[in-house]
Design brief:
Layout: H1 2-12, H2 16-23, H3 30-47, H4 94-116, E1 123-127, H5 139-145, E2 148-153, H6 156-165, E3 170-174, E4 188-193, H7 204-214, E5 215-225, H8 228-236, H9 243-246, H10 249-252, E6 261-266, E7 269-274, H11 276-283, E8 288-293, E9 303-308
Parallel strand pairs: 1-2, 1-4, 2-3, 4-5
Antiparallel strand pairs: 5-9, 6-7, 8-9
Bound molecules: S-adenosylmethionine.
């Protein structure tokens, strides 16, 4: 009976990957296995349909505010830190978490000053902001130079955390994976994103055009991507915990990247790799590619696309 139910649930799964994941379930009781399999299928159809997903707080009939662990307060730091479960895997250690975000903020500031100069009142958007790991560090620019701060993420939970814990000047909201943002044409000076286009395999081109639409003429688009550099990094570290689960054996066990691009995965784990020259050509159809920076010395193995409208 258990097998029959599981076979039935498996047939509901829309993708090979999900069918295989259901086959691999190792829950102890039959009921738990079936419950888990049903949960996975429900996720596929409701939370993350294949081509446009959005992770709401709760997809049951009654939705209550999510329960978060207490926010973390650090001496001398004005904004609270998200508790570790709300950090999306970015360090559980408070000072590391702050240092990493500050480092990325510093690199962004370098590019903004280089291309836009030092300006009052810039409007910036963190595309895929999560719980504000990087956006939080622009609070200083908001206070000193009246910068306007916006953030969007497809996951409702980190956005809800920010709504409850950050000042209302952070204009954050939940988006989805369809290329549409509720901002006016020509309204942003800078749009940046860390590790977001590394996962966008559907409609990446329409996303670039949507981001271009809301950028002011001359505005900056800064996004990290996986190139040959990330490919080589993963190959070299293939035995690190978690890498096997989130990366294809084509990357981990194959040779050098010798194809223009490679998309891997589905639903919850997708990875996108571009050869640097392919990214320059493909992105260059939609925006001016000013530079492709190699991964910075610390914290990351992703290249930076520096583009202008
Ligand atoms: C690897 S995480 C990085 C989070 C954050 N940028 C950081 O560096 O701390 C990628 C984030 O992008 C978000 N994301 C992916 N596709 C998105 C889309 N189309 N629109 C908005 N957010 C998206 C994910 O929900 C996730 O929070």
């Amino acid at each position: 009976m258990r097998q029959q139910i599981l076979d039935f649930v498996r047939r509901l799964a829309g993708t090979k990957q999900l069918r295989e994941s259901i086959e691999a379930l190792t829950q102890t009781s039959a009921t738990e296995t079936v419950e888990r399999a049903l949960w996975m299928v429900r996720q596929e159809y409701t939370v993350m349909p294949r081509f446009g997903f959005h992770q709401p707080l709760d997809y049951n009939m009654d939705t209550f505010p999510p329960r978060f662990d207490d926010a973390v307060f650090v001496n001398g730091v004005e904004l609270p830190l998200p508790p570790p479960p709300e950090r999306m895997g970015y360090s559980d250690d408070n000072s590391e978490y702050l240092k990493w975000g500050k480092y990325d903020h510093g690199l962004l500031m370098g590019q903004i000053e280089k291309y836009l100069g030092h300006q009052e009142g810039l409007s910036i958007l963190d595309f895929g902001c999560s719980s504000g790991r990087v956006l939080r560090h622009f609070w200083q620019q908001k206070k000193s130079y009246s910068w306007k701060l916006a953030g969007v993420d497809v996951q409702a939970r980190p956005i809800e955390w920010m709504r409850q814990n950050f000042p209302t000047d952070f204009r954050v909201y939940v988006g989805n994976t369809l290329p549409h943002l509720p901002f006016e044409d020509n309204s942003m000076d800078v749009i940046y994103g860390f590790s977001v286009f590394t996962h966008i395999k559907y409609q990446w081109d329409a996303w670039i055009l949507e981001l271009r639409r809301i950028l002011k003429p001359g505005g900056l688009l800064i996004q990290t991507i996986h190139t040959e550099n990330a490919w080589n990094f993963y190959r070299a570290h293939k035995d690190q915990p978690g890498f096997r689960k989130s990366h294809s054996s084509t990357v981990l066990d194959g040779g050098e990247m010798n194809i223009p691009f490679f998309y891997y995965g589905d639903i919850s784990v997708s990875q996108v790799f571009w050869k640097r020259e392919t990214a320059r050509q493909y992105w260059g159809r939609y925006v001016d590619v000013l530079d492709i920076l190699p991964p910075p010395p610390e914290h990351s193995f992703q290249d930076w696309m520096i583009c202008r409208k």
